[in-house]
Amino acid sequence: MENYRIIITPLQYYFFGGEKHDEDLKINYYVESLNYPQQTTLLGMLRYYLLLVNNLITGKSITDKSTAKDLIGSESFKYGGNLTFKKINSLGPLYFTDGKEDYYFAPVDILFSMDKDFILKYEGKAYNVKNHQNIICPYLISNSSGSPILLSKIIEDVPQVGNQLPEKGGSKDNAFYKQNSKRLKPGWSFVIDAGIDLELKSDEYKIPFGGEKNYFSLKCEKREAAIFKYPQAHIRTPKTIVCLSDCFIENSQIKKADFGVTDSVSFRNFRSNISTKNYYALKKEEEISESMVRSSRYQLLKRGSVLYFSTSEKRDEVANKIDSDSATTIGFNKIITN
To answer: What are phi and psi of 190, to 5 degrees?
Structure first.
């Protein structure tokens, strides 16, 4: 099986995920894009790409569903379900490149220090959980330089407002909306590693991707998967787990840590299969073969979160639980231990 480095470059602004609808499937007036695609979005993009390069999709339709099933599997990601995507064996966690160096998500306490009594300090003062949201910001870090970069330095907001036009002679209530899309700064790209049991060309493709179906450049390179390392300055005396990607993990497991610096993220995904008739419909009660359906909502341990343990045995128990989750197949639950 070959590993492919897949470089995904936005050609304009983009919109990923976020809750556009409430529980009754009514669209919220204000929606904001995620800063980057979730692992399920990347899986969907890769499945679409394989259909495209094998001439199995035209417009909205899969032309040969039997062959498509053998290529990408019959159904999209379902947590706890049978994760078989045929020629796609695995996905790694999302990371970034500026064309020269690769950057992955840093531990959220990257700017902290730890004194001899194992007390975390920020700017010389003991960490105070009451200031958590003010000092925990997402950083990227490279393996080579080890210097952290704020994610907000490479991703820009693109606010948009609008008003849906009413039908002739009528009116629409709650038609005003505001949407905050995102833009990646020039020179930067998203990257994933994927284990794919096919021979892929290194040709560049332009494909629609994300909530607005804006175009992205996609290019595959056959090479070894990236290996992420701890920055030397972050290696602590206590044993730790750092989340490289968002992690499905029960609260009972998190509570086994002696302490942690963590954040959470709400997750749900739209699901379909290769027999779905209408990929643009979202109806709560219909079968997946008729339209898109929504998964349950989960609270995941957010990438960059750090759990501290007094012993390696306690750390390994939790790490093994995270590692054994089937969601690792598509890049969730990826961790580094120390």
So the answer is: -85, 150
DSSP 228-260: ----GGG--SSEEEEESS-B---HHHHTTSSEE
In degrees rounded to 5, what are phi and psi of residue 73? 90, 165
What is each CA distance from 241 to 93, 127, 246, 286, 301, in whole angstroms? 16, 19, 13, 41, 12
Residue carrying the six token digits 């390179």:
221
Could you say which DSSP state residue 129 is in? Answer: G
Q: How far apart are CA 77 and CA 44, in angstroms?
A: 9
Residues ≥6 apart with Cβ < 8 Å to 54: 67, 71
Instruction: Judge whether 334 and 245 are in contact, CB under 8 Å.
Output: yes
What one-letter code names the amino acid at 52? L
Beta bridge partners of 3: 195
Residue 14, strand partner residues: 182
Find tokens 């909205």 and name the residue: 60
The predicted model scores a pTM of 0.87
Q: Which residues contact 128 (CB under 8 A, 6 or more apart)?
A: none
Given a contact cutoff of 8 angstroms between Cβ atoms, the answer to whether 62 and 56 are in contact is yes
Tally of domains in the chain = 1
Say how many residues make up the chain. Answer: 338
How far is residue 173's CA from residue 252's CA, in Å, rounded to a whole number?
45
Q: Tokens standing for 134?
A: 């003010």
Q: Which domain holds residue 263?
A: 2-337
What is the Cα–Cα distance from 105 to 277, expressed in whole angstroms?
38
Reading the block at residue 210, the tokens are 């994300």
- Which of 5-19, 43-57, 262-276 has the least mean pLDDT? 262-276
Is residue 51 classed as helix, strand or coil in its secondary structure? helix
Helix, strand, coil shares, percent, the chain, to 5: 15, 35, 45
- Note the pLDDT tens digit of each residue in 229-251: 877 767 788 899 999 999 999 99
